[in-house]
Amino acid sequence: MSPAHRAPFSLRRWLALLFRQPPQGLYRRPCLYQSGDRMEIEHFEAILAYDETRLRLQLPRGQLTIYGEQLQIETLTARRITLRGCFVRTDYTTEHTATGQRPTGHLPDRRPSWNPFVSGPR
Questions:
Q1: How far apart, in whole angstroms, are the C-alpha atoms of residue 8 and residue 90?
Q2: What is the C-alpha separation between 7 and 40, in angstroms, rounded?
């Protein structure tokens, strides 16, 4: 019998695939949600700087900076922060970007080689 005409999964196999566990560490990754004038960030490590126009957070593999106007912290817990304000932009810098070093394997270099506007080491 050809692979295209195989018998369907058994009910037990189908349920096992449906309810399998997610990859390890999935629920500990930083998450950012925005809806209108509210933004929620989960799983950050520390607040590095805060004023009405900027919030800088330390994440496990870099720093997240949120720029805006009239930024106010609504809620703050050990791993979650909720902001309210007019958001202008966000910047994410990895640790190797801040120190000028290239990544050590866990962050691939995704710059296209054909782009003439990208400078720096390849």
A1: 47
A2: 46
Burial of 54 (0-12, 13-18, 19+ CB in 10 A): middle
- Distance of alpha carbon 34 from alpha carbon 83, whole angstroms: 9
Judge whether residue 76 has pLDDT over 70: yes
- The DSSP bridge pattern shows strands 62-76 and 31-35 to be unpaired
Q: How far apart are the first and last CA of the chain?
A: 50
Please report where in the chains the tokens 């919030």 appear, as a residue: 55
Task: Write the pLDDT tens digit of every residue in 21-43.
Answer: 877 777 778 899 999 999 999 99
pLDDT digits (tens, 9 = 90+) for 38-60: 999 999 999 999 999 999 999 98
- Taking CA atoms, 29 is separated from 20, 26, 79, 110, in Å, by 19, 6, 11, 21
Global pTM reads 0.62
Identity (one letter) of the amino acid at 42? E
